Amino acid sequence: MQIANNVVALIEYTLTDDKGEVIDSSVGGEPLAYLHGAGNIIPGLEDALEGKTVGAAFKVSIAPADGYGEKNEGLLQVVPKSMFQGVDQIEAGMQFHAQTDHGMQVITVAKVDGDNITVDGNHPLAGQTLHFDVKVVEVRAASQEELDHGHVHGVGGHHH
Fold first, then answer.
1. Beta pairing class for 22-25 and 7-16
2. What are the beta bridge partners of residue 62?
3. CATH number of this structure's domain 73-120
4. How far apart are CA 74 and CA 107, in angstroms?
5. Confidence (pTM)
6. Which phi and psi (to 5°) does residue 23 adopt?
7. CB neighbours of 95 closer than 8 A, spacing ≥ 6?
8. Which listed CATH number (3.40.462.20, 3.40.50.11810, 2.60.120.430, 3.10.50.40) goes with 7-68+126-149?
């Protein structure tokens, strides 16, 4: 069976940056399970997996536009330290969940300048070319429930 829309694929992957440093990997753990065509993974990787079958192994580089987007300087914002109630020490690199106009979002502390905290609403991988080393380990038909919910259930997928 080939990977196509409305098919579940399980992949092992290692994600590295331009320097070859590992950002994330499923190796040694559960493979990543996703519903192809449902937007569960970044568009560039989904496009690269289209038509692949079990056993396919390949490397692909994904430009920011097909990954997490270009870095948007408009998503940098200076906020008062008082917005971080209950947090004693705030340092650059810390991440928090924040309610925004676009729903819940992860923000990263970019800079601390006294009581002024610069936060970054960009995805941490925005603006980066992503390098994937991928192996397809399983391809199967999606269940009706998975199609209805728009994501994989069970091992390697979402649990309700």
1. antiparallel
2. 130
3. 2.40.10.330
4. 13
5. 0.83
6. -95, -40
7. 106, 107, 108, 109, 124
8. 3.10.50.40
